[in-house]
Amino acid sequence: MTVIRSGSPDLNPKRWHRLFRRRSALRHIRMLDTVGARVMALIVATTLPLAVIASMLAWHSYQQNVGNSALRTERDTQLTISEITTNLDQTHTLLDMLADGDISSGNALREFALVQTVSQHHYCLLMLTDVEGRPSVVLPSPSTQDPAICHSQEHTSSSMMSASAKLPVVGVDVLKGDRGPLLKFVVPILNNNSVSGYIIAIRTLGWQQSRLPKGDSRLLLGTDNHSQHLLAMPDGSLYSLFPDRPAAAKLPPKAMTRLERDITSLSQHDVFTSQGITYAFQNAYGPVSLIVVTERTAEESHALNIFLIRVSLIVGLLVLELLGVALGASVFLVDPLEKLALAVADWRRGALFAPRIDHSIPLEIRHLEKAFLRATRRLTQHEKDLEQSARNQDMLIREIHHRVKNNLQVVASLLNLQASRIRSHEAREEFRLVRDRVRALATLHRYLYSENGLSALDVQSFLEELCSLLLSANSMNAQTRIRLRLDIEHVLISPDQAVPIALIVTEVLSNALRYAFPGERAGHIVIALHKVVPPDPDKEGLVELKLGDDGIGIDACQASESRTRREGIGMQLIRGFARQINADMTVSNENGTWYTLRFIPERPSLTALAMAREAINHDEDSVR
């Protein structure tokens, strides 16, 4: 017979991983369940908004300091554009006044000198031409002026003063000079609604600081060490706004790329910050653009450090506050509660509940300790009373089983004594059958009370002893012609099923010893009890009890109809007891007589002492 044993199923590694993550999450959740964690969470929840507000104020102050650079750059740009516009308007006005006045070759030089003086010598050339564009009066740039300021590859003074000069084009033209952009003005002289000549003027777009009078607001532009004023040509060339103060106009690649994009897209205005430097782009005149570059001041550069220092102070104060409050809460609240919890845990492990009551802890916790002390004393006394009561009940049940066993043994002895005085063989056999049944019940009562806390029958040891008693009662042992084979697993059976099973085994074994091997016939009697895998999942825990012999056998189909002594009351008892344990029984007469019973053992009940201990443990778990 193949015995199928149920083992532990292999656990899936993914299942292990999910179980580990679930336990880790539960561990983190339990960490938040402590008093200390909740106190810290409350403190953080109350102080964090204040820290956020202080950080936002520090950030606002930082943004204001940083924004000063952009505001200053914008202001300088607008001021410069305003000065350029005003200066060009003055130039247009002066030239128009000259053209509308009575200017001639005789007074042109004096008029030009007056204009040069009024404009602070910003003109590189003032010239009067005839109607064909041939120069008649020329006022060149002053000898004290740097020649490079007025030099340009696009024109020369000698070519303009030559007799083969081209007819001038009225308007304003922008020339690229060596020190910056130059403006060429051509104003017609009208006489009786006809052009009688032209006034040609070339001047710098910027200003010469050395020529500006004291108190002029333009002297303040570009004097700050943190700013630059540049003029940009369409080809990307950069020049200083002040041609007599040339400076290396070189911008970082990132800023230069942005400015080139602004020039290409004909943008009128743009302000941006790159690498801590603010750039303002503004159209100055025609294709010429003004670029104001402003570096941050020391105060603005240190604004970020000040912001970081403020945030660090806020965080530091917050941490110090949390540490201080946490230390105070730990000393006056968390530690007393933890000591109380440890005292309760020690009491649950069997020690006495002895908290250390300190008057420095809060009054509520002291009252809680006293309440726990009174409750644990009462509960401990109640547990002792309950265990003593359960122990007494256990001893009473043990005594009852012992007395029932002794009484049954006495009954069996009386039946055996009475059977020895009966002369009729059939009557004597009936008395012995009853005796065997009574002895089986007596043996059963000795095994029903177990030390493992369960009121159950250990089938293996019980059947071994029961079979040994039945063999001895029939004057047989293991060395006789009829041999007994036991193959029994450890199975716990409730008392309600133990009695029918004991009587079934008694009937089958007694019948086999008396009738299966007539004469000197030898053979085997087999009793096997195994757990089997049920075909139906609802029948989990199914047990198979197989009893039989390889004797002469009986006809299974006539078993219920036979009137012989062997197949009469014994078969009726076996079938009745099988119905009591809800077993499916089959009888076979192949190679002897075999009984197969399949049933599900009922769950054993607890003893009184075990139930008392379980109730105590349940109360402790509910308190936990």
UniProtKB/TrEMBL annotation:
Pfam families noted in UniProt: HATPase_c, HisKA_2
Annotated signal peptide: none
Nucleotide-binding as UniProt keyword: yes
Residue span(s) of domain Histidine kinase: 399-603
Chaperone keyword on record: no
Keywords: ATP-binding, Kinase, Membrane, Nucleotide-binding, Phosphoprotein, Transferase, Transmembrane, Transmembrane helix
Protein name from the UniProt record: histidine kinase
